[in-house]
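Lab channel / #folding
Pinned by the channel admin:
"Please post every new chain as: sequence first, then the structure tokens as a reply. Keep commentary short and put observations after the output so the thread stays searchable."

First post following the new format, from NK:
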Amino acid sequence: MPPSYAQVAVGRYYRDLVERHACAGLKCSSIEPTRSRGSGRGGDFMDAVLRDRQEIERLRRRIGAGSALVVRRIRPSKRGSRTSIPDQRLVDMVCVEDRSLSDVLKAHGWSVSGETSQTLAKALEAALERMNDR
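Reply from TO:
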């Protein structure tokens, strides 16, 4: 089942916040034009950056510290390079890095099968739903 409109919207909102916050340091390159048309309040830009950071932290707390797929207690020689996939990493890879679920599975050493893909999709939907709870 595809993600709901609300889940897609919160994923895009999260992506936009993270990208805007990551690019906040680039604002200095356009400082000259803003001086001439500034509002007289020098803290407006920093206030916006801090608000974005607080909103990102709030959304990340909602995602939680759980894992979408967990490697059970198996000897390293038998499990290979497979590692657990934290919910936060799953959301970041899909929403911010624009990676597919197959890419997430491969990056963590999991085989791309119907069962693991379906489990990962459900975990992503659950994380997005937690982010969307108001």
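NK: Residues 29-36 have pLDDT under 50 and may be disordered.
TO: also worth noting, The longest helix spans residues 44-63.
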